[in-house]
Each structure stands twice: as C-alpha cells, then as structure tokens.
Amino acid sequence: MINSFLVDKQSQSIWTSYMHLSQFSINNQPVLMDIRISPNELDTIEQYLKLASSDQLQEQLRYATYSQEELTLIFPSIRKLLEYGARQNKKLTRPAIRHNYAYMYQAGQNNPRHTLMLVLTYTRVLEELLGTYKLALDKHRLEEANKHFMEQKRVKDWLFSLPIADMSEGQYSQFRQLIGG
Fold it and tell me: Which domain of life is it from (predicted)?
C-alpha cells in the first residue's frame, strides 16, 4: 500500500532513507541528535551536492582552487554530516551498515581536495545521508513536541481531576483559563 504513494525516485529515496533511519532507534528510544548542523549548513550542503550532481564541480577538481565559502562553510559542514553518519553507523549492527562514513570522514579531514573528491565520487551517498539527517532531525523535533504536549496534557488531566472545592486560587485560575472562562 505504501508503495502506491511513491511517485518518483526522490520520494522512493526518501522512503528508503526513512526505513534506514528507523534502524537508528534502539528499543524505540528517541534518536538523539549528537551532531548539530544548522539549517544554513544543511541548505549549503544541499546546494553543493546539486552542483556536484550536475557536473559543475569537475573543472574545480582539476585546478584545485577553492572559494573561501568552500573552505570555511561547505567542507566543514560536509565533514559534520559524515561525522553524523559515522556515529550512526556505530549504533547499527554490522549487516545494517551500508556505507563507511568513518572512512569518508577521515579521508576528507584536513584536505579540501579529498573532500571535493568524496563529494564528486559519493554524491548520491551524501544526498541519502543528508536526507537521513533531515528525517532524524524532524523525528527528534516531533518527539520533543510530543513530549511537551504529553507534559501539558498530564497537567491538564490532573487539574481536571481535582474537585473545584479542593483547588487553590492559582489552580482555579488555571482551570478557568483552560475552559475559556
């Protein structure tokens, strides 16, 4: 039934990434985001991978010239993404590991040329890892929102279970706000 909703390769890739992400949760514990990549960095990585997909970076590899943005923002962001992938691989069982992100992270550590070569060689892998990171981030945000909602619900349930005569002034004021009075 779910396959009928898959319209194109991109949505199929997102579904594959989601299925890969579901392996990251251990005993249904929330996925902890131990590597933080800012939204600006995520957008930058995504744009750079699009350039790599359209073969616009091939000439750059030949001449080994890098912009300031690549050296200060793009390559460090890609290394963060690879570090995230390496840490997630540590949480998986051996058969579930699809790519050696730790090797990619080490290879591009202090060498922009190696990082660019990784981007050009493993563009699709990095796109999938980026999608996986975004899904994990969304899942983390959803779990945080759900946790906050459940805490508020628990307080409301407790407040509604109290008889009005037993409520303090503050509790009664809160109760009136909840019922719109």
Answer: Bacteria
